[in-house]
């Protein structure tokens, strides 16, 4: 079973995304802040990381940077309500993000994008 | 005797010495009673603080437990395999038995969660939210809030309807627009414009109160978000008597780029109210009304500094060679430094020979020109 790490401080969002991805057959680990996120990246094995940009203690860009240092092959999807801000999008892609999904987003679309990254 | 008992005895002896007069008599009985009451009050206060703290702790953990239940319930409901009406009803009635749905704090939490879902998700998920709101029976609660005699409950109810995009009781919202309470009136106006489908802005024609800056910004945000069409009789809004409404009408004309109202906007350059004139100066710039230039120049001397700066800004965009000559004359006459700097910036965009112009005879103008040409200080 493929494992997904979800770093999101809004419990309602993470609950819904976890539920949706579980239905697709993924094991989802959820953490609520940047420090827990970095810890989970270092100590766990994940096939894909989904991170919000605005999370406590660290931001999504730092998470991408750290994850790429540990394993550059793990794809990272960035969720953000700062979708309109071009600089954030560019920075995320420069750091190696595989995809960027602005909030509000469709969980079914997220699931399709996760499938695309993990099954190809 | 232990050390603690010795300390207690010493403390008693100190208090005894403190409240006894030199002749050996004690303070009056009334004072003793007052001291006793004070001591009791302190004990009571500490006890009350403890109760409040523990109650808050209990309610916090209760909310946390409920939040987890709501998260699971909403996730299962939205993505469950059984999407039939019966399946929905079954899950909802089971959930209602597991949570204190009759408590207002629980209803508030549920509504806020539905609102959060609507803000963060789109697509199939959000289409189900309003039906969940109805099936949980939350519409009765929000209706009771809006019908409450207290304005703060009414605004809370209006906020819920606005965020849930529930326009089922628009007539009730419209009635509140004429409320005497400014907070309620404002909330009702924003809610009505946000929810009404047919010509939501027409409500402003009946609105008799002033429109604050915050209200204006909120309404403009709704117009932008909902892509509300231009009201058919927008030009006639420039006949509004109330200054803030008139200013808002000018802002709308700019937003909709309504050039058919250009003549009316130019007429407002002579309006009595300086704030209306300020809005008209800005509108001339944004609509690029070059015909306003001679009026702007002629009005300049009579205006406040704020309005003068707006005129200069507008001249820098729509001005001709005459405007450049006007600004050159302006900076050579006594003016405030803000006006001089703004005029210099305007000249730099209007006057093709600006860089060649030397202001050798006037040190302050020379410094102002250097400031304007400095690439690190550009506007």
Automatic annotation (TrEMBL), chain A:
Residue numbers bearing the 4-aspartylphosphate modification: 52
Response regulatory domain ranges (all copies): 3-118
Pfam families per record: Response_reg
Biological processes, Gene Ontology terms: regulation of DNA-templated transcription
Matching InterPro entries: CheY-like_superfamily (IPR011006), Sig_transdc_resp-reg_receiver (IPR001789), WalR-like (IPR039420)
CC annotations in GO: cytosol; protein-DNA complex
GO molecular function, one term: transcription cis-regulatory region binding
PANTHER family the UniProt entry points to: DNA-BINDING DUAL MASTER TRANSCRIPTIONAL REGULATOR RPAA, REGULATOR OF RPOS
Protein name, as recorded: Response regulatory domain-containing protein
TrEMBL record, chain B:
Protein name in the entry: HEAT repeat-containing protein
Organism: Mongoliitalea lutea
InterPro entries, A to Z: ARM-like, ARM-type_fold
Keywords annotated in UniProt: Membrane, Transmembrane, Transmembrane helix
Pfam families: HEAT_2 (PF13646)
Residue spans crossing the bilayer: 30-52
